[in-house]
Write a structure and sequence with these properties.
By secondary structure, the chain is α/β, with parallel strands linked by helices. The chain has a single domain (8-377), classed as TIM Barrel. The protein contains twelve helices and twelve strands. The strands form three sheets. The chain has an eight-stranded parallel β-barrel, surrounded by seven helices. A two-stranded antiparallel ribbon has the order 1-2. A hairpin with a 2-residue loop joins strand 1 (8-10) and strand 2. Helix 1 (36-47) packs parallel to helix 2 (79-91), helix 3 runs parallel beside helix 6 (216-226) and helix 7 packs across helix 8 (292-302). The protein is globular, with a radius of gyration of 21 Å. The mean pLDDT is 93.
């Protein structure tokens, strides 16, 4: 039976455990480049025991960013920074991973820590602002929520084909930089998510209408990347599998779509929400492990390994979903920001016999050979495993 600290192999890549640093947008790039900030921040997570380390969604074009402070991989002069990040992650025992995406109609924003709109949500900048631009989407329908009210440009068929070429070009750069795992971002209201959702996609051509048409964008993007991404490296996808709105993406349609993606070279499904509208019915954001039942349904129906995130930061819960074989990998975003050594802390909480096996051998030697008062090492004594905090689904 696997547990949170069991190795996991997908294609030609083996992870040292099942704990993943989830992509988190950090608003700390200039001209889309990665620099010392990213080397330090992401290297620390690999050093802390995370097996697979993502940076943030990497834009495939300049207008595919959320803000002008977001990272990308649309230009060859960005490869050097990515290569430095890959090198430090591997040196610390992790596997470097990249998530490719395009924000679509949820771009042209002000970084949220620099200000919000009257509703306290993200503030979109007008197209004529120095840090703004005209967003693109399947249809000329602004997001609406969070103050996204400026007109958007409906992509032409030719522009869609150009975006697929941009996906492939970004994948080539990712390979040159040293990434060993590539994920496509089709969730959270960004471009891929909006093509799948009838709320955002009201096209009448081959990219709109039926499910088969609405998933065409995703399949063609997968095909473009799969053509240049080596077979021995995983190609995965984060999908907005449910808009929590009767007019949006429905979960059963998403399960069918993932099955279609499997036939186009998809190796693992990272199951998330659509976020194509703020008008969600009974949003479950305070519920522990609320995406697990959906991810397990994908695993059973499609026959692919699955991952998910959302409220899995309690070690007992993260371990349980692996032990019960509900999912294959646990993605942690905010917990990884809060504690770069979350895996080691989790190992102590779960009474692992050797929690320091997760750090570099030189560090592990010092930590295992501490002579003195145990808690003074900086790691409080592990507590007894507490009762699980969520009900079986």
């Amino acid at each position: 039976m696997p547990d949170l600290f069991s190795p996991f192999t997908l294609k030609g890549v083996t992870l040292r455990n099942r704990i993943v640093m989830s992509p988190m947008t950090m608003y700390n790039s200039v001209d889309g480049k990665l620099d010392d900030y990213h080397v330090s921040y992401l290297g620390a997570r690999a050093a802390g025991g995370f097996a697979l380390v993502f940076g943030e969604q990497m834009a495939i074009t300049p207008d595919g960013r959320t803000t002008t402070s977001c990272a990308g991989i649309w230009s060859d002069d960005q490869i050097e920074g990515h290569a430095r990040v890959c090198a430090i992650i591997e040196r610390m025992g992790g596997v470097p991973a990249i998530q490719l995406g395009h924000t679509g109609r949820k771009g042209s924003e002000l970084p949220p820590h620099k200000g919000t709109n009257a509703e306290g949500t993200w503030k979109q900048l007008p197209p004529d602002h120095p840090d703004g631009w005209t967003c693109v989407a399947p249809s000329a329908i602004p997001y609406g929520g969070g103050g996204h009210v400026y007109p958007v440009h409906a992509l032409t068929v030719e522009e869609i084909a150009a975006l697929h070429r941009s996906y492939a070009d970004a994948a080539r750069r990712a390979l040159d930089a040293g990434y060993k795992w590539l994920e496509m971002h089709y969730a959270h209201g960004y471009l891929g998510a909006s093509f799948l959702s009838p709320i955002a996609n009201q096209r009448t051509d081959q990219y709109g209408g039926s499910l088969e048409n609405r998933v065409r964008f995703h399949l063609e993007a997968l095909d473009a990347v799969r053509a240049v991404w080596p077979e021995e490296y995983p190609l995965t996808m984060r999908l907005g599998a449910d808009d929590l709105n009767p007019k949006g993406t429905q979960f059963e349609d998403a399960v069918t779509a993932i099955g279609m993606m499997k036939a186009h070279g998809l190796d693992l499904a990272d199951v998330s929400l659509g976020f194509n509208t703020d008008e969600m019915v009974d949003p479950p954001f305070n519920e522990v492990a609320f995406m697990i039942s959906r991810a397990k349904r994908v695993r059973d129906a499609v026959g692919l390994p699955v991952a998910t995130s959302w409220n899995l930061g309690v070690p007992q819960n993260a371990d349980r979903v692996i032990r019960e074989e509900l999912i294959d990998l646990v993605f942690l975003g905010r917990p990884a920001l809060a504690n770069p050594h979350w895996p080691i802390w989790a190992a102590r909480e779960l009474a692992h016999p050797d929690p320091f096996h997760l750090v570099q051998p030189d560090w592990a030697w010092w930590l295992r050979n501490f002579r003195g008062h145990g808690p003074s090492i900086g790691w409080p004594e592990a507590r007894e495993v507490s009762e699980l905090t969520w009900a079986a689904q």
